[in-house]
Design brief:
Layout: E1 2-10, H1 21-30, E2 35-41, E3 50-54, E4 57-67, E5 79-82, H2 95-104, E6 108-111, E7 139-144, H3 145-152, H4 156-164, H5 175-186, E8 192-199, E9 202-206, E10 209-213, H6 216-220, E11 223-229, H7 237-250, E12 253-257, E13 267-271, E14 276-278, E15 282-283, E16 289-305, E17 308-323, E18 327-337, E19 340-347, E20 350-352
Parallel strand pairs: 1-2, 1-8, 2-4, 6-7, 7-8, 15-20
Antiparallel strand pairs: 1-11, 3-4, 4-5, 5-6, 9-10, 11-12, 12-19, 13-14, 13-16, 16-17, 16-18, 18-19, 18-20
Length: 353
């Protein structure tokens, strides 16, 4: 499999971000990303999609959008949509109709920041997802960088601290978001988990102090979604775009917090009597299955089955578990960084049926 690093969910000056698509591409090239996916609010920006290059480096930009009902108060139920090449914000007032419209043209949809708190200190309302009766969406954003920031600050001084020392911020997805993901997975559906930056490069001030809250480049070295492709990117835009969308759709992905240590090289696989599969795939449990995770360096590793921890390993980079039990299996890994235990890797599941 061919691994690439993707950063998704970011905003430009077309809506409430401060940078251009070119600014994002430049920052992505400097961070050695392979793909960035922009998602401005309720507008599908035409023109910027494609490859951007600097020397021997290249990054593919895919343009999607974050769709929500702007007449709703408060404006909850945000859906990340990409791979459509078609404006769908006209369907924003009904989430199920919107999801159906995305599926009709074979696009992808991800529930954005499922749990997003109110933050009066910076005049931010809660934009949590509420309509859990919907179905047919591709997945959910299990880790959102901006939502985590909102959940950690209580005053403007907290915001100022993280603006100047952003490396202290990220610790992991909200536990209730992970709990919801497991609940959805246990219902028998495939729900792909992704990590999103929610990057805006917002400029904040407190008296004489001004600062950009998390520049795009900071996000691009932090919470990324790593994809495993069936073949290497070729540089041909349409072909590569389809490879990327197919990997997202299949759940051939893991979320890596790349700031404490690089997560490139992580693999989670299952070997059965006849087949071998990776994250996002199904395999028969009958006859026994060997689950194996390989990490790029030592970490605390947890094997999760149907939402419950069934095995733990300390200071390991390889772990193996043999089972005949059907279920939904996934891996979480943690590391110490700047004095705290932090989420490092969250795999998509392997489904034993």
């Amino acid at each position: 499999m061919n691994e690439i690093i993707t950063n998704l969910h970011m905003h430009t000056r077309y809506t409430d971000g401060t940078g251009s698509h070119e600014d994002i591409a430049k920052a992505a090239l400097e961070a050695n990303l392979d793909v960035v996916i922009t998602t401005d609010h309720n507008v599908l920006v035409q023109g910027p999609e494609g490859y951007y290059k600097a020397g021997k480096k290249r990054v593919l930009m895919i343009v999607g959008e974050e769709i929500h009902d702007q007449d709703r108060d408060p404006q909850k139920n945000h859906l990340l949509v990409f791979g459509t090449n078609q404006e769908l914000a006209q369907n924003a007032d009904d989430p199920q109709t919107l999801i159906n419209s995305v599926n009709k043209i074979e696009g992808l949809s991800f529930i954005a920041h499922p749990h997003d708190p109110e933050q009066p200190a910076i005049s931010e309302t809660a934009i949590t997802w509420e309509d859990w009766q919907v179905h047919g969406y591709t997945g959910i954003e299990i880790w959102n960088g901006l939502s985590e920031f909102k959940g950690l600050i209580n005053t403007k001084l907290h915001a100022l601290f993280y603006a100047y020392f952003p490396k202290f911020l990220a610790c992991g997805p909200y536990p209730k978001t992970i709990q919801k993901w497991d609940e959805l997975l246990n219902s028998g559906n495939k729900i792909v988990g992704v990590g999103g930056s929610d990057a805006h490069a917002l400029r904040g001030s407190l008296g004489p102090l001004t600062r950009t809250l998390f520049p795009y480049g900071f996000h691009f070295n932090s919470i990324n979604t790593h994809l495993l492709l069936s073949e290497a990117l070729s540089g041909e835009e349409t072909k590569d775009r389809n490879l990327i969308l197919d990997a997202f759709r299949a759940g051939h992905a893991f979320i890596g917090y790349d700031l404490p240590a690089p997560t490139r090289g992580f693999r989670f696989s299952a070997q059965g009597r006849r087949d071998s599969v990776i994250m996002g795939d199904e395999i028969p449990a009958k006859g026994g299955v060997t689950l194996q995770a390989h990490l790029p360096s030592f970490a605390e590793i947890r094997l999760i089955k149907d939402g419950e921890v069934i095995r733990e390993w300390k200071k390991q980079s390889v772990c193996t578990h043999i089972t005949t039990e059907p279920g939904v299996y996934r891996i979480e890994a943690y590391r110490r960084y700047l004095g705290r235990r932090r989420g490092w890797i969250f795999s998509n599941p392997i489904y034993l049926r």
